[in-house]
Amino acid sequence: MKQMIRSLAFLACVNSVFGQISSKLPQFDAASVKPAQFMPGQSRIIRGGPGTSDPGRITYTRVSLLQILMKAYGLPWDHISGPKWIDDNSAMYELIATMPPNTSEEQFRLMLQSLLAERFHLKQHRDTKMFPSWDLLIAKAGLRLKESTQVPNTAEPGVRSGFRMNREGMLVLPGPGSIAIFLNDAERMACTGCAMEKFVAMLGGFVKMSKDVLTGSPVPLIVDKTGLSGNYDFALSFACLGTACGGGRRPSAQSLETQPVNPSTASTPDPVNVPTLFVALEKQLGLSLIKGKDIPEDILIVDSADTQPTEN
């Protein structure tokens, strides 16, 4: 009997400490989270928050718990592991929340972490995992990039319409922004007024596709060793040889920000011989990739979470 009393007292203490920790985290002004139904052909949408055109409100539609975790902890999908359902169409959610417009990215993430703990009763821990890496360098033949004359876009990333393709098969954007689509049997990306950091963030997924890596394996880390600063205009077109070509690609930090773009707005280019990614980088941008050493990275492991969030 005494042992049972001690056990109950311990659990009460743990719950009290957890509640105090959760209550100390920044909170959304208001938040609604509820299950959503998967609709084939309809997009998962993540919109708003710090750094976007709507910094005081987020609207997440038909998203998985994995996608919310990615936002909450600032990690790509392959740095998070847990039960299969966290990235499954059977468990989708709609999340709408408001916050002060001057909320920082760090505060926003803590708000999401608090919501996950309170509504999903998320329990997680950290670990370390080795990831493959590639070094991005300026090619021996010299850089083919030119600094952008466009003012960097501070609104929500992505261009949903108005892009076109030139006769060389390159995407052309009407203004600052970025896009990556699978079109006419090739992966095509364009980024106008973009820093190297943003281009590098997109490049890892392209390397994975080009190397025909097994689905679910880690996206290679790209280490920028170009020494380039400032903003540039990128346009890249290459043959997709991997298992994640087209619609089969896993979500990235960039693709989660925008809805799919309708390629009917693009002109059809003359037939072109699309090169592999490694050849395209050198010929089109004057950059090269060299295999680097595996790099240890922090990962998040989901121990448990509720599939049904608590009521608002």
Unreliable sequence segments = 7-21, 154-160, 246-271
Number of discrete domains: 2
* Helix vs. strand class: alpha+beta
Largest sheet: 4 strands, antiparallel
**C-alpha Rg (nearest Å):** 22 Å
Q: Give the count of helical stretches.
A: 5
Average pLDDT score: 78
**First-last Cα distance:** 38 Å
- Strand arrangement, major sheet: 1-5-3-2
Helix content: 10-25%
Q: State the order of secondary-structure elements, H for helix, E for strand.
A: HEEEHEEHEEEEEEHEEHEE
Structural overview:
With 312 residues, the chain is an alpha+beta fold. The protein has two domains: 2-127 and 300-304, no CATH class; 133-293, no CATH class. The chain is built from five helices and 15 strands. The protein has helices at residues 2-24, 65-73, 105-119, 196-210, 277-285, and strands at residues 30-36, 45-48, 57-63, 80-81, 92-98, 123-131, 133-138, 164-165, 171-172, 177-183, 186-195, 221-224, 231-238, 287-291, 295-304. The chain has a four-stranded antiparallel β-sheet, covered by helices on one side. The chain has a three-stranded mixed β-sheet with strand order 4-15-6. A hairpin with a 5-residue loop joins β8 (164-165) and β9 (171-172). α2 crosses α3.
